[in-house]
Amino acid sequence: MAVGDGLAEKQLVAAFAGDARVRVLTEEDVRRQYPVAARFDPYGNSTAHVPYTPAMFAALATVTVRAVHAAATPRPKVIVVDADNTLWDGVVGEDGALGVVVGPARRAFQEFLLEQRAAGRLLCLCSKNVESDVLDVLSGHPDMLLRTGHLAAMRVNWAPKSANVHELAAELSLGVDSFVFLDDNPVECAEVEAGCPGTLALRVPADAEAVVPFLRHCWPLDIAEVTAEDRERADRYRAERQRDAARTQAPSLETFLATLELTVDVRPLADADLARAAQLTRRTNQFNLTTVRRGPAELASLPAGLRCHVVDVRDRFGDYGQVGVVVAGVERDALVVETFLVSCRVLGRGVEHRILAAIAELAGAEGRTRVVLPYEPTERNQPALRFLESLPAHRVDTATGARFELAVAAEITPRYEEKPVAVTVVEAAAERETDWAYIATTLATAEQVLAAIDARRGAPVSTVVTDDPVEAAVAAIWARLLDFPPRSVHDNFFDLGGHSMLIVRFATAVRDEFGVELAIDELFTAAFTVADIARTVRQRQLDSASETELADLLDELDQLSDDEIRAMLDLER
Q1: How many angstroms separate the most distant Cα atoms in the chain?
Q2: C-alpha angle 499-504-507 in degrees, rounded to nearest 5
Q3: Per residue in 227-257, pLDDT tens?
Q4: Cα three-residue angle 284-287-293, rounded to 5 degrees
Q5: Cα(208)–Cα(230) distance, rounded to whole angstroms?
Q6: Among residues 38, 43, 36, 39, which one has the least CA distance to residue 509?
Q7: N or C: which end of the chain has fewer CB within 10 A?
């Protein structure tokens, strides 16, 4: 919800602090995203309690829609950024590590990237250069904010950047459709867009000053909420590199996993888990049996009979955090697992098997004899199917997928794998077809949004035939505001698509054009026509003229002396 300055806003922010089900949009959110110079409409406020100008309403609406978009759509997980003329000005291979320029605008861009990292996105670097040159800039340039330690991975070579993005995706166990690629070169962006279906490739503006404003209006980079796991994600990937190093030194995968000291904790959902659990249901695609998506409020109020558990994992290298969600209900003698999902970064280590074993143990303690695992196929959840097919379970195909029935007492043997290969798919969803660069450049202000709305409506022209200039002007105003332009002076405002908000805009236009203030409270309840309004305007103008003449006469009389007034009265007699 959007609120104004003052005590009410502070009370709302305090009341919902920590509640993952509610996001309060503050005055600062609106000012930061869509500042509007003329925000307050005194006339609309005094006459109809409509306090804002059309531009301010456009700002409020757009901020709200962006917040909903951020909460309801999957967020990118990785930002891959170019180096030369992107992180810095210049070409390191020609200018040298200390010769490239990192001015205020480039530092602001790096600050933006570090904000994204703090919110949970991984940063990677992909550059066509000599690796040692780039490392020298990252480690030795005094003006750089972004350092090697901030990067989850990097590729500095002369290979096509699309190939490097695929390698980064495999290294991070993520799909390329969770990547955003930033480069100043349109050819590189086009090559990545063609070679990495699903990756959002954005050409950053050539003007360094325009880069951060452009990215702040790229909606997929908006941050819905920041969980504890988000804040620690980059550090956890650093721990993952330590695991990879230990893996290469171990004689076998089984030996390595045996030394991990892996702990898997399956526990009931708590209020503090809501934001992260909802985030997992929206983001997890590969190991997700049914891909049921739920928000925090839905998880907090599950249908009767359903229970939610979350999964925490840690090992000797560190804490993975909350990586899984299980939602289950009861069907006769079976525990039916409606949702079973696990983050891909812990797959292949037996974690999913331990979770299932914990579920089976819970079912057995309640007197159930079976665990039923429904599976609904998608383009990306083949790893979940492979897991189900490895179990000693009975498969029953259904109209939409399959059900795997497992005896509570069945032996669940972990199946270990090297790091799972990220799944790459081509999505035809409208989300991927949206031209975010166009939105970030041409719909970046409330005024631009309002103009685009008006332009989409077209430029309707009044076809009213009348000899009365006031009726013609009123009809022209209606044509600009309403869904359907009037065809005669007897057309009704509400029949043509008018509503309460448009009444205020119409009355404001009448005041600006004719200097006449209409009684808005009467317009709300009246069914008025072009002719009605024109008649009222003319009468108000006449009344105003008469009042002006009377006021002028009184001013003249006020300037006369008593003797002059008596002389005038004597002449009249």
Answers
A1: 127
A2: 115
A3: 777 777 777 777 777 777 777 777 777 777 7
A4: 40
A5: 28
A6: 43
A7: C
